[in-house]
Design brief:
The complex is a heterodimer of chains A (596) and B (134).
Chain A lengths: L5 E6 L2 H4 L3 H14 L6 E6 L11 E4 L3 E3 L7 H10 L24 H4 L17 H6 L4 H9 L2 H11 L11 H10 L6 E6 L8 H8 L1 H15 L3 E7 L3 H16 L15 E7 L8 H8 L23 E5 H13 L1 H5 L9 E8 L5 E6 L4 H8 L9 E6 L5 E4 L9 H6 L8 E6 L4 H15 L5 H18 L6 H16 L3 H5 L2 H9 L1 H9 L14 E3 L9 H5 L5 E2 L7 E2 L9 H5 L5 E3 L1
Parallel strand pairs in A: 1-2, 5-6, 5-8, 6-7, 9-13
Antiparallel strand pairs in A: 1-3, 3-4, 9-10, 11-12, 11-13, 14-17, 15-16
Chain B lengths: L5 H16 L8 E6 L2 H5 L2 H14 L5 E6 L11 E4 L6 E3 L4 H14 L7 E2 L4 H6 L4
Parallel strand pairs in B: 1-2
Antiparallel strand pairs in B: 1-3, 3-4, 4-5
The chains are: A alpha/beta (596), B alpha+beta (134).
């Protein structure tokens, strides 16, 4: 086989795939065949590049051309111009002004401040090819663990690395492993929590889709360390691509003898099974997850006993989330000291965030611990979209809280976020601008909690519903001033009395928005006014007489014919008919419609 | 491949690393640019390009980047190839068939000597660069 001279990497992450990257991949293959350059061009589908805002992304090596917003029809031109003639297709390059100088991936602001440890292989290798993972030092961690280190020495490396759980609470990983290792038991298990369920979070999915072997390798290392021979990956069924790639990876690893009996002839046996979850948020809580693996209804149980000693089927179990696991092979291969050099004194290594919301460059971002929010939002994220004003960032999903402008310079680590009333969580980061109403946001998260609460304990089941009802009243302008005290007392009671993490943190979004935006709550209650113009019951649309030229566009677009007026005459909105959809506001070219 | 031992895994990694490293643009200080305009392709530039890649691979040379460009303006001596090596003048070779490509790799790239009988000059570039044109 002739060696390849061009490599085309097509993003196969879910975001790009939903934007037809699969079709692009197939068209590129066909064009390559048709134009006779199949023998020396390799087309590879890779995991998420993280720059989802600009997707679908196609990267051509060795020129390092970074093509964005690629359409299936562009395949012919990419092959004909770039592959055959060696001319970059400048109209598709990320930064067209630099097209002559070739915008390398390192030159794109989005990637400048990022350090990729967990996402080291995402967008680089073909996740469905074990050889490419091996070429990038894959399974070198297993080598070192099985042949050079004792289980105690592996734990020592973890301790040196300072790695803490990336799923939310931030418990030191070495300590967790050590608990399980110390327990005498015939059966032990390792479990990967891939039940990522926060609204707006998708870093675990992308890791599994882009680098599934790293999780298999990590779990094998975990099994060797604590003395387990079996592992479960608990993943929600709504991640079909990740499941598909995991299955391929497991099959390849078994063929190579990297999973199964007598791994690499070392005498150590380890195998993994995938357990599909139905997508219940509570199953991300470790005790509920374990019940679900056992085939029971996914409901939390009180801790202690902790899973480290009484986990799956009552046996000692190490349970970590995807991102934590993804760090393990690197720590083993490069040493714990290596990871400990990244980050702050309190939090080592990196954190992956799914940056979404009103941000210019939404996508997956991996930064060293201690990076400030400002750097993430402005330097990496490119600031707020559409020139609006930054209002707050919501981290930690339904368990977290908001961080406001005054705290933009806070370094991000476990302690600092907690001080601000939010949490690291799994890493969802939703950016909000002046148009977002904080009461409405709190109501959204509580609505999520009401649906996802398992109902076992009253503080979460009843408290969540009551809080939701109060917020619903406030957004309708029916709130009372005592409601604010009620929110606080119910919220704090839920924190103290709920059985599991879901209930204990469920009131965080409402308490933190109340803490940082009390005026917004008060203006809903006292003035029956929504300052952001979001709460429909509290707003009305009006037309400014001095700006309306009577073009009639709004009247034609209004779905309920609530706008009347002769052409070239002032138009008027009938408030009784208006459903407040905002269409007139959006279409008016003369800014004549305003919200009150 | 069946089940592996530690030795097999290490051997496989070395082999795979080699093939993956060809994707890397870093650490490549030399460049071979093949003229792939219509004239070049018609004169067999495709075979020349393949020959370069094959020769580099066979000689385990990793710091050379092979790329393509359009017509260099020397259509009468196609296929044309520009070779850029630090410390040596940039050279344009003409009439580079696969056999000559092998010579270029062995003499120019490996032994830092020019390959006689095939050197042509760039017809216009110097004038533009040195500003003699205006």
């Amino acid at each position: 086989m002739a060696p390849f001279i061009h490599y085309i990497l097509v993003c196969g992450g879910t975001a790009c795939e939903s934007a037809k990257s699969d079709k692009i991949y197939k068209n590129l293959l066909n064009e390559c065949e048709r134009q006779g350059c199949k023998v020396n061009t390799q087309i590879v589908k890779t995991g998420c590049f993280g720059f989802c805002e600009q997707g679908p992304i196609v990267k051509v090596l060795p020129e390092d051309s970074f093509y964005v917003h690629v359409q299936p029809e562009d395949a012919e031109e990419i092959i004909a111009e770039h592959i055959v003639k060696g001319r970059e297709v400048s109209r598709l390059l990320y930064d067209k002004s630099k097209s002559k100088v070739r915008a390398k991936i390192e030159e794109i602001d989005f990637y400048q401040k990022q350090v990729r440890v967990v996402l080291r292989n995402c967008g680089v290798i073909n996740p469905e090819n074990i050889n490419e993972y091996i070429a990038r030092d894959g399974y070198a961690g297993i080598e070192r663990a099985l042949f050079e280190l004792s289980p105690d020495q592996v734990i020592e490396e973890l301790k040196k690395s300072g790695l803490r759980g990336r799923g939310g609470a931030g418990f030191p990983t070495w300590l967790k492993w050590n608990f399980t290792k110390k327990v005498e038991s015939d059966e032990k298990y390792v479990v990967c929590n891939a039940d990522e369920g926060d609204p707006g979070a998708y870093m675990d999915r992308s890791t599994l889709e882009g680098d599934p072997h790293s999780i298999l390798e990590a779990m094998t290392i975990g099994g060797y360390t604590v003395g387990a021979n079996y592992g479960y990956i608990y993943i929600r069924a709504e991640y079909p691509l990740a499941i598909h790639r995991l299955k391929i990876a497991m099959q390849q690893a078994r063929e190579y003898g990297l999973l199964g009996k007598n791994i690499l002839d070392s005498g150590f046996d380890f195998d993994i099974e995938i357990r599909l979850g139905a997508g219940a948020f509570v199953c991300g809580e470790e005790t509920a997850l374990i019940r679900s693996i056992e085939g029971e209804r996914g409901m939390p149980t009180p801790r202690p006993p902790f899973p480290a000693t009484h986990g799956v089927f009552g046996s000692p179990t190490v349970l970590n989330n995807v991102e934590t696991w993804a760090n393990i092979p690197v720590i083993l291969q490069k040493g714990g000291d290596w990871l400990a050099r990244i980050g702050t004194s309190d939090a080592k290594g990196t954190k992956v965030f799914a940056l979404t919301g009103k941000i210019r460059n939404s996508g997956l971002v991996e930064v060293p611990m201690g990076t400030t929010l400002r750097e993430i939002v402005y330097d990496i994220g490119g600031g707020i979209a559409n020139g609006k004003e930054f209002k707050a960032v919501q981290t930690g999903g339904p368990s977290g809280g908001v961080i406001t402008k005054e705290h933009l310079d806070t370094p991000i680590d476990y302690v600092h976020l907690q001080e601000l009333g939010s949490i690291m969580g799994s890493g969802g980061m939703i950016v909000m601008d002046e148009d977002d109403c904080m009461v409405d946001i709190a109501k959204f998260y509580l609505g999520f909690i009401v649906e996802e609460s398992c109902g076992k304990c009253a503080p979460c089941r009843v408290g969540g519903r009551t809080l939701y009802n109060i917020l619903d009243r406030i957004t309708k302008g029916e709130g009372e001033l005592e409601d604010i005290d009620k929110i606080e007392s119910i919220g704090h009671a839920m924190q103290k009395a709920s059985l599991c993490g879901l209930g204990q943190t469920a009131s965080n979004p409402v308490l933190s928005t109340l803490k940082y935006f009390p005026d917004e709550y008060k203006s809903h209650i006292k003035d029956q006014r929504c300052p952001s113009g979001k709460c429909k019951q509290l707003i009305s649309y009006h037309i400014l007489p001095d700006k309306c030229i009577g073009c009639g566009l709004c009247a034609r677009r209004c779905p309920v014919n609530a706008i009347s007026g002769d052409i070239r005459q002032l138009h008027k909105i009938d408030q009784n008919k208006c459903i407040k959809c905002g269409e007139c506001y959006n279409v008016c070219k003369f800014d004549a419609v305003y919200v009150r | 491949m069946g089940k592996m031992t530690l030795k097999d895994l290490r051997a496989l990694r070395e082999e795979q690393r080699k093939s993956l490293s060809r994707r890397n643009v870093e650490n490549k200080d030399m460049e071979i640019i093949v003229g792939m305009g219509t004239c070049g392709i018609a004169a067999g530039a495709k075979e020349t390009l393949d020959a370069f890649v094959r020769e580099l691979d066979e000689n385990s040379i990793k710091n050379v980047r092979v790329s393509q460009t359009g017509c260099m303006g020397l259509c009468y001596v196609e296929p044309t190839v520009e070779v850029v090596v630090p410390g040596m003048p940039d050279v344009i070779y003409g009439k580079v068939n696969p056999e000559v490509a092998g010579k270029i790799i062995r003499k120019h790239i490996m032994n830092k000597t020019l390959v006689n009988d095939h050197i042509y000059d760039r017809p216009a570039a110097d004038i533009v660069e040195e500003g003699r044109g205006d």
